[in-house]
Amino acid sequence: MIYLDNAATTLRKPPQVSQAVVQALRRCANPGRGGHAAAALAEETVYRTRKTAAAYFGLEPEQVCFTANATEGLNIALRSLVRPGSRVVLSGLEHNAVTRTLTGLGAELVPVSAHIFDGDRWLEAFSDALTPGTAACVCLQLSNVFGAVLPVDRIGALCAARRIPFVVDASQSAGLLPVRPAFWQAAFTAMPGHKGLMGPQGTGLLLCRAEPAPLRFGGTGSNSMEQTMPSELPDRLEAGTLNVPGIAGLGAALDWLTRQDPALLLRRERGLLDTAVRGLRALGVPVWAGADQLGVLSFRIPGLDNEEAAARYAKAGIALRAGLHCAPLAHRTGGTLPEGTIRLSLSVLSEPGEIRSFLSVTKGMMNH
């Protein structure tokens, strides 16, 4: 199978990731729940991953909290900042993990919109919307629908100047673009472990530069006599048994990433996306593409329903995704409602031959 659905999850991972998962399953017990060797090894494994992640993102280890996915991290971040009726400014490209959470909290959503690939216009739109009384600002770094890169550094500076807490969704960017919460002055930055970070599913990180409210309550292995959650991080957010095998795999993935040349990975993935864009345009396929695009490409096959086209790709052995990609707000901004798009999404392990095969299959679909 040619796998081009990496915005949903990376399927091909460095081999040491699965090796670390298996080793943890065989050798690690429950961290903080015993003084024996298996519990100690679990605690050491978790801390090593936490320390690696902290170094990778330029933070202290206690600011790195493990979650089950980016959605859980975003829930924690938004529930820590937003109350019913709170005014929240967000980009018009946000995922349902943001919009459904805010709706559930009874917030007033103020989505801003601009030309998808125009960073200056996005900055202007945020500047106009970030008025006094705004409780929080939420912005993704990389769109899961269009691959647009938003200027989160400059948006973060705006928020800091106006004393508005800033939340960044780095779901599509972590592992590919620099994620710098301290430079962005972000209160919280959320991401999954299973996409660009190349880790297992069921893992995620919430990077905390502000005080979060716990989403779950229960045991942490510390301060067991107290009936309130510990005040210190990361214990405050990590109630219950951690996904130690997943965290071990995420640690191995982060180790692998730290040994790569990030500029080379970025250049390689940009080159593959460029090839796909040029090839589709040459075939007369409508694409949504622009400056600074990365990793994700939306397109449509003329005369074919998106789901039907995706099914034909699947029959040819190519995995893509069709529909709204859990982000109807982004499709409203991009003018692609109600049918959405077909999405091709890359990883740093995608190969040029996969793009050539994809274009060959597309050519056949255009001719029939």
Question: Overview of this structure, please?
Answer:
By secondary structure, the protein is of the alpha/beta class. It folds into 2 domains: 2-11 and 261-366, Aspartate Aminotransferase, domain 1, CATH 3.90.1150.10; 15-258, 3-Layer(aba) Sandwich (Aspartate Aminotransferase, domain 2). Helix content is 40%, strand content 14%. The protein is built from 12 helices and 13 strands. The chain has helices spanning 15-27, 37-57, 70-81, 96-104, 119-129, 152-161, 181-184, 244-258, 262-282, 306-315, 328-334, 352-366, and strands at residues 2-3, 64-67, 87-91, 108-112, 134-140, 166-169, 188-192, 204-208, 287-288, 296-299, 318-319, 321-323, 341-345. The chain has a 7-stranded mixed beta sheet with strand order 2-8-7-6-5-3-4, sandwiched between helices. The protein has a 4-stranded antiparallel beta sheet with strand order 9-10-13-12, covered by helices on one side. Strand 3 (87-91), helix 4 and strand 4 form a beta-alpha-beta unit. The longest helix has 21 residues, at 37-57. It is globular, with a radius of gyration of 21 Å. The mean pLDDT is 96.
What's the helix and strand layout?
Elements: E1 2-3, H1 15-27, H2 37-57, E2 64-67, H3 70-81, E3 87-91, H4 96-104, E4 108-112, H5 119-129, E5 134-140, H6 152-161, E6 166-169, H7 181-184, E7 188-192, E8 204-208, H8 244-258, H9 262-282, E9 287-288, E10 296-299, H10 306-315, E11 318-319, E12 321-323, H11 328-334, E13 341-345, H12 352-366
Parallel strand pairs: 1-11, 3-4, 3-5, 5-6, 6-7
Antiparallel strand pairs: 2-8, 7-8, 9-10, 10-13, 12-13
Helix pairs in contact: 1-8, 2-8, 3-4, 9-12
